[in-house]
Write a structure and sequence with these properties.
The structure is a single chain. Helices cover about 75% and strands about 0% of the residues. By secondary structure, it is mainly alpha-helical. Among the domains are: about 130 residues, Tetratricopeptide repeat domain (Serine Threonine Protein Phosphatase 5, Tetratricopeptide repeat, Alpha Horseshoe), CATH 1.25.40.10; about 120 residues, Tetratricopeptide repeat domain (Serine Threonine Protein Phosphatase 5, Tetratricopeptide repeat, Alpha Horseshoe), CATH 1.25.40. It has a two-stranded antiparallel ribbon with strand order 1-2. Helix 15 packs antiparallel against helix 16. It starts with about 25 loop residues before the first strand and ends with a helix.
Length: about 500
């Protein structure tokens, strides 16, 4: 399992001196970010939870962070770490907001950690990078700080820079396991598979009694098309931890790629039946939806997301419900049901407005609605509206300086140019779009066909079919289109 997007803050600490009764306690290991709390017992619980969270055993980590908070309700980083292992978006934001409210009571390093997470929540990755770069300057010998900065680069698909900081992290502490995992994925995205395999093998060597190293290595094998070997390694992870959700999903994804859809969903039903919380139940429903979409069953895919939505609805988790509405919209969009898709995209905005979230977080959903409005207008033949919405979206994301969303703007520009048969402009923009979305490979294949390069068009289609992306609706959507295109070549 790879960790990016929301990054769990992993901070180094040593127990310091209790200065006075009810006065802050701060870890002060030389060169490391300190952590502030009033209780040695809380600190001990936090460290145990942090260790488990760094190994992606999130359900096991949660009780330790909860105990730390019970012992010290003002333990800011315990709240922040509890946010990252929370089973719902609602709880994530609740504990994040508590940590933010305590920002004036912690050390400067902790403050920057909290602000970095907030920037990520607000879809401001470059602001987050500035914060993490400041952390690295302040604490150049803290392996966890380098790991955080590396993961920021990773999230923006700057794999080489990510590897640089992951390597620095391992040079500081060769037994610190998380960067080996992330480095393996970075090499995988660079298609440096031998280097990726070496990283994952080192990860396994460091924590052989944990499930995630086997899970991560299995995902590399899946990417390379070695499906049965991948399944075998996912089973090794489940032998260590039978409820490790990512490995159930990984096995199901391999079975989807092998065309064994009923078997895939049997595996996911096992995950659902033994789920430890609503978060895992939602994961099972989403993976079921991917399986049905991969099989070409739009109706059942939608039903699974509806079931996922109900879980969030029961606790008033409007952020999660908004995301589910977008997912349903995307499934309808892929099926050519554009009016139904638009209704879902509109619903996502109305739901996020009800959420107890900052305006910055809500603005991200509003911006993405422009993206979806442009796509729908284009598919319905309204080029003028598509262009207006695209230009508005592009202006907003460039002002925000969000690299991922800038790639989405190029995607829209490329799609419009393709519709207008301006293949040169389409080609330029689609190359700047997200290359980890196999749907863009299909669009590039269309450009190559129009340019008379059938060989390259065929290569793009084959790459889209065999992209082997874990638990991805985009993969499912692209595979069907690419297969149709290959059949017509």
């Amino acid at each position: 399992m790879v960790t990016y997007g929301f990054v769990r803050p992993a901070l180094m600490i040593t127990i310091g001196l209790l200065l006075m009764v009810a006065v802050g306690l701060a870890g002060t290991m030389e060169g490391k970010v300190p952590i502030t709390t009033t209780s040695n017992q809380a600190l001990d619980q936090f460290l145990k939870g942090r260790d488990l969270a760094e190994r992606l055993r999130v359900q096991d980590a949660r009780p330790y962070f909860e105990k730390a908070i019970a012992l010290d309700p003002n333990f800011a980083l315990a709240h922040l770490n509890l946010a990252f292992v929370a089973p719902s978006a609602k709880l994530f934001f609740e504990h994040h907001d508590i940590a933010k409210g305590l920002i004036d009571k912690v050390s400067e390093g902790e403050k920057l950690m909290i602000l970095g997470v907030e920037a990520g929540n607000n879809a401001q990755p470059m602001k987050q990078r500035e914060i993490y770069q400041k952390l690295v300057t302040m604490f150049p010998d803290d392996e966890r700080v380098h790991n955080l900065l590396g993961t920021n680069y990773f999230g923006q698909q700057q794999w080489e820079q990510a590897v640089e900081h992951y390597k620095k992290s391992t040079e500081i502490n060769s037994s610190f396991s998380p960067p080996y995992n992330q480095m393996g994925y970075a090499y995988r995205f660079l298609e440096k598979y031998p280097e990726a395999e070496t990283s994952f093998q080192k990860y396994i060597e460091l924590i052989p009694d944990d499930p995630n190293p086997y899970d991560s290595y299995a995902e590399l094998l899946m990417k390379m098309g070695r499906y049965q070997e991948s399944i075998d390694n996912y089973k090794k992870a489940l032998a260590v931890s039978p409820t490790f959700a990512a490995s159930h999903i990984g096995i199901a994804t391999n079975l989807n790629f092998m065309g064994k859809y009923p078997e895939a969903r049997t595996q996911l039903q096992e995950l659902y039946n033994n789920a430890r919380d609503d978060g895992q139940r939602r994961q099972a429903h989403f993976a079921m939806a991917v399986s049905y979409a991969d099989e070409g069953n739009t109706e059942m895919a939608i039903n699974e997301i509806k079931n996922q939505y109900i879980i969030a609805e029961q606790i008033g988790d409007y952020a999660a419900m908004s995301g589910d509405a977008i997912t349903m919209g995307n499934i309808y969009y892929s099926a050519g049901q554009y009016d139904d898709a638009m209704k879902m995209y509109q619903k996502s905005v109305s739901l996020i407005e009800k959420a107890n979230l900052t305006e910055e977080v809500k603005d991200n959903t509003r911006r993405n609605f422009l993206f979806n409005e442009a796509r729908i207008a284009l598919m319905k033949g309204d080029l003028q509206t598509a262009k207006v919405k695209t230009d508005e979206y592009k202006m907003k994301v460039e002002t925000l300086n969000n690299p991922f969303q800038i790639r989405l703007a190029h995607e829209l520009k490329g799609m419009i140019a393709l519709e207008e048969k301006d293949f040169k402009t389409a080609h330029t923009n689609l190359l700047k779009a997200n290359q980890q979305n196999p749907q863009n490979l299909c669009r590039l294949a269309e450009v190559y066909m129009a340019e008379g390069d059938q060989q390259e068009a065929k290569a793009m289609c084959q790459k889209a079919v065999n992209f082997n992306q874990l638990n991805s609706l985009n993969q499912a959507f692209a595979k069907h289109k690419a297969k149709r295109m290959l059949a017509g070549m």
